[in-house]
Amino acid sequence: MSVPPPPREDLTVVNEDDESKWELVVFQVETRVFHSFRHVFTNTSEVFRDMFLLPPGQSDEGTSREKPIVLHGCVENDFASLMKVLHPEQIHVVDSKFDLSEHEWLGVLQLATMWEMKEIRELCVQSMFQKQVDIAPLKLAILAQQFRVRSWFLRAVRDILIGTIRPSTETLISSLGVSMTCRIMDLQMCTLAGVFGVPPGSSKAGSPRALVRLDRLRCGVCRAALFTQPRTCPGVGCQRVHSLEADACTAYVLASAVLMLQSDDALGFSVSTSSVGCIFCDRQLCAMVSCPECYSLASDTNRIFIGYTYSIVERAVEDAFKEELKDYDL
């Protein structure tokens, strides 16, 4: 025998917050009206959280289609894309994927950035441009600046420096400005661009030479810089100081001793220590040099590396743009 339900007047509300959580809200963006729940926006956006904390007015704004909250500064298609993310269907939850185009994701990212939706921003960045072929480096750099995305910025500048697509200087200036382009040009010095200088009359005793900066000489084991301080030539009677400044090419490498080296994350040249000399006295410059990081002793078998790795380039990019990157996240 079933027990009849108690009279309605005898029912008690256990938690009124549960009821208010599902409070409907109506937005209008351009010509379209959208329905959602207030907590969907307050839980994801600091902007909406602050807005809904304000005392309600007398107009009942946002309670019906006739009295929607009108959102300015955005377009209806972008808001519709955002609603797809905020109200996922079951297949999206199961597969952790949304069927949005690049244009739609960028619209969502635009609104998530404007309304301080941190988790939605993270989702946008994770969902776009995962493969290098998905977007050209220059376009990615522009988007990284627009949306303040750190990972995109580092990847874009790195690929401009060492990728297969190298925009011209004129194109970089027109797209990124003079200041950023100049710093990218300077960063080429941490790649293979400008590794060696070959002055006239560099051949001696049948052994052509190439000038090299001291800071380009790296440990053949861990790729760390061998010299972090100026190096005094050990040659008797020379004692010239080799600077680490960018314009100081005071060491040379015998061209005949240079071997090409390539691995999954590194590209450059391998040279023996005996082939690196001082341009002032012609004596060996790197005898008995140990790596300051891994303490390996550079030798003719443990050769010196001249080149770059992805991590070397990314550290250089971070250092060159550290002021801008303070305002970037993700």
TrEMBL record:
Domain BTB: start-end pairs: 23-132
Q: What is this protein called?
A: BTB domain-containing protein
Q: Where are the transmembrane segments?
A: none
> Which species is listed as the source?
Coprinellus micaceus (Glistening ink-cap mushroom)
Q: Which Gene3D superfamilies match?
A: Potassium Channel Kv1.1, Chain A (3.30.710.10)
Q: Which SUPFAM superfamilies match?
A: POZ domain
Q: InterPro entries per the record?
A: BTB/POZ_dom, SKP1/BTB/POZ_sf
